[in-house]
Design brief:
alpha/beta, Rossmann fold, 6-stranded mixed sheet, 3-stranded antiparallel sheet, globular
């Protein structure tokens, strides 16, 4: 049995302002196992991004406990590449921030870029790359410090539909090839089904886990192939009902 990489135990989080307080999550519990890809979907405004901030340690829960086994890398909705830096200099930013900018670590980051198709673009600037390639560069940047857990905050939402399909396949391949644990927040049901080993459905705010599903695609991990699989439409219908029931 795989060990847990991330665990939320009875987590409550309350935002306080001068005039009021808002409970974003209440009695929320779930775990993500080592090497597992988990997707979380939920109604708009239910606190999905708050959950990622708690997982990353950017927020402390008001109650309960968040336990991490290892370091986290956070991939944002937009690539947020610095336009004045080359791709090579962009992907080593985390190494600079964490004071790990050694020749060994830089070579590892460059090797990842080469391995996943960016080797010819290391001296290019973000404006010279397509949206899909920029997002791939953002993932390589996230992987530069070799985090144990990847936190993905709707990383495909800024892309057009066709590009999103291609990038989803790229990202899935990279994460699974590198053996990373991943937690994805998404509003896209099809995206969750095509990528994840498990899907968690959150309730309305204050969020708790309303449903948990282990997807039964066997060894099929290719997102595009999953969309063509016989069981895909059944999963979509079920999750749609749970979100809108």
């Amino acid at each position: 049995m795989r060990k847990e990489s991330l665990r939320f135990f009875d987590v409550t989080h309350i935002y306080h302002t001068v005039r009021a307080e808002t409970t974003a999550a209440e009695h929320l519990s779930f775990s993500v196992n080592e090497g597992e890809f988990v997707a979380i979907i939920g109604p708009s405004g239910c606190g999905k991004t708050t959950l990622l901030s708690l997982a990353a340690g950017l927020l402390e829960p008001s109650g309960g406990e968040v336990m991490r086994c290892g370091s986290c890398g956070y991939m944002l909705q937009k690539d947020e590449l610095f336009p004045w830096r080359t791709i090579e200099k962009n992907i080593v930013i985390p190494l600079e921030i964490k004071r790990q900018n050694t020749p060994e670590h830089r070579e590892r980051a460059k090797a990842l870029a080469v391995k996943y198709g960016l080797g010819d673009f290391l001296q290019s600037y973000p404006s010279q790359l397509s949206g899909g390639m920029r997002q791939r560069a953002a993932l390589i940047r996230t992987l530069a410090t070799d985090p144990d857990i990847l936190l993905l905050d709707e990383p495909f939402s800024a892309l057009d539909y066709q590009t999103r399909l291609n990038v989803t396949e790229d990202v899935s391949k990279i994460i699974r090839s590198e053996g990373k644990t991943a937690l994805l927040i998404t509003h896209d049901i099809s995206e969750a089904i095509s990528l994840a080993d498990r899907v968690l459905v959150l309730s309305e705010r204050p969020a708790h886990v309303a449903y948990t599903h282990t997807l039964d695609f066997g060894e099929l991990t290719n997102p595009l192939k999953r969309r063509e699989a016989p069981g895909f439409s059944g999963w979509f219908e079920l999750l749609w009902k749970e979100l809108n029931g």
